[in-house]
Amino acid sequence: MTEHTTPDPTIEVLISRVVDGVASPADWARLKTLAVSDTTIWRDLAEAQEMHGEMAAIVARAESIADSIEAPVEEAMTTGLVNRFRLVGAWGGWAVAAAVGLAVVAGRPGTTPTNHGNQAGIMPLSAADAFNQYLTQGSAEGRVVGEVPTRIMLEARPAGASRGYEVIYIRQIMERVVVPNLYQFGGKDEAGNPVPVPVDLVPPAGLGKM
Amino acid sequence: MNDKRRRRLKGPDTQDRSHTAAAALRGDADALRAVWQENRRWVAAVLLAHKPKDADLEDLLQDVAMTLVKNITKVRDPSVLGPWLRTVAINAARAAGRQTSRRQRGPFRLSRGQGVSEGEAGATWPPVSDEVERIESGERLTALAARLPEGYREPLLLKCVKGMSYREIGTLLGLAETTVETRIARGRRMLRELASAEAGGGWS
User: Fold this and answer.
1) Total structural domains within chain A
2) How many CA atoms does the CB half-sphere of A100 hold within 13 Å?
3) Residue B36: closest C-alpha in chain A
4) Closest approach of chain B CAs to the CA of A198, in angstroms?
5) 3-state secondary structure (DSSP) of residue B13
6) Chain B residues with CB inside 8 Å of A66's CB?
7) A4 domain residue, yes or no
8) What is the pLDDT of residue B128?
9) Are residues A108 and A179 in the same domain?
10) Pair B134, A57: CB distance under 8 Å
11) Angstroms from B95 CA to nearest CA on chain A
């Protein structure tokens, strides 16, 4: 195979082509002609070949290390999924709270066109009231375990014309649900995508026995 | 030579590589694996050319593989995947340079492949063989190659990767094929001269 295009190669290029196994018959002929008047060319060629062999041994060792390393595709995918589930976990309580809140607001007499009846005695709910009602009712039903006391601040900025600061933060609600099965992402399908695997939790010894 | 045999000897053809690269850029898991497998050998050579002596090649390869998986979707054009991956490797090697300068390494750490197994340990001492001598000479040469001018060391090491042509090296480095050939030839001559000077006039 000849891949070179240099029209008038120097001795070093000719030697290099021989080392790389790409010297053409014309290259060999030229090298032999030059070597008639300068026999050190053969010594240079031998040295260049030996050096290339030694460096190639180092590179071959590096190649074998490279061959043992695979692209961490599953790791990256699992990390992405975990992050997604963390987000869902973080906002799930809010979604429920919002849903309950919406339900409370939507079910409030007077908020729908069909509700034209007596509104006497029903106080309009604020967002805080609706949220508190969700906590109270959820706790009574056994769904809401409690609220994490720490609130996570996302952003704070001056409150514009009014005095003080506008703070964006996350409140975290702990909920409890009973599910028929638990799954974890421990396996992968033929495409390398994580698949859910059922988890069998064994209670610690002594638990569940009276 | 039939197509199957040619592929076994030369690897996937350009069109296959282009399709694989395009799929990898879309985040296809299998294509990502294939892209890494296709390129990891020359990535190792690039790391050898740029990493500090004490940096662990295996760690660096893992860093590059992770960066490839995480960031490949940011690459817009499959044709620049090779040069992009080379830049990732060079950055990883340079970052290792900054870290190793701050970190004290243990004096007895064996690099991969240099360990002597229990069975071999008592067989011959010192464990001198042609291969060991070859590796030691190669390591001395690689260290000497670090003294070559910028732009000569990397093509020289890339040419040692099995099956890598001047053209492929040129594509990676953004150089013409003839420039790559000239640099490799000059790099070899300079390395011979350095080795000769190191050995006190006569290279052995």
Assistant:
1) 2
2) 19
3) A71
4) 24
5) coil
6) 40-41, 43-44, 61
7) no
8) 54
9) yes
10) yes
11) 19
Q: Is A3 on the interface with B (CB under 8 A)?
A: yes
Q: Which residue has the higher pLDDT, B76 or B97?
A: B76
pLDDT digits (tens, 9 = 90+) for B160-186: 998 899 999 999 999 999 999 999 999
Reference A20, options B108, B202, B158, B74; nearest CA is B158
Look up residue B169 and give its two tokens.
């090296």
Residues of chain A with pLDDT under 50: 1-2, 81, 84-85, 88-121, 206-210
A58 touching B (Cβ < 8 Å): yes
User: Please, what is the average pLDDT of chain A?
Assistant: 74
Which residues, including other chains, have CB under 8 Å from residue B66's CB and lie 6 or more apart?
Answer: A72, A75, A76
Of the candidate ranges A24-33, A189-198, B42-51, B96-105, the one whose mean pLDDT is the lowest: B96-105
**How much is the pLDDT for B100?**
61
Task: Say what the pLDDT of residue A115 is.
Answer: 40
Please enumerate in sequence order all residues whose Cβ is within 8 A of that of A25, keeping only pairs 6 or more positions apart, or say none. none
Please give the tally of structural domains in chain B. 2
Chain B neighbors of A190, CB-CB under 8 A: none
Instruction: Quick: pLDDT tens for A108-153.
Output: 444 444 444 444 445 677 888 898 889 999 999 889 988 888 788 7
How far is residue A19's CA from residue A16's CA, in Å, rounded to a whole number?
5
Mean pLDDT of chain B: 79
pLDDT of residue A77: 62
A139 and A175 inside one domain: yes
Task: Give domain status of residue A106, yes or no.
Answer: yes
- Tell me the residue range of the domain where A18 lies: 11-67
> Does A205 map to a domain?
no
Residues B84 and B156 in one domain: no
| Contact: A13, B185; criterion CB under 8 Å | yes
Does the interface ipTM go beyond 0.90?
A: no
Cα nearest neighbour of B180 on chain A: A4
Domain that holds residue B135: 123-204
Nearest to residue B85, comparing CAs of A88, A193, A136, A66?
A66
Strands (E), A65-180: 144-158, 165-175
Q: Helix, strand, or coil here: B178?
A: helix
Q: What are the tokens at B106? A: 């243990």
Residues A91, A58: one domain? no
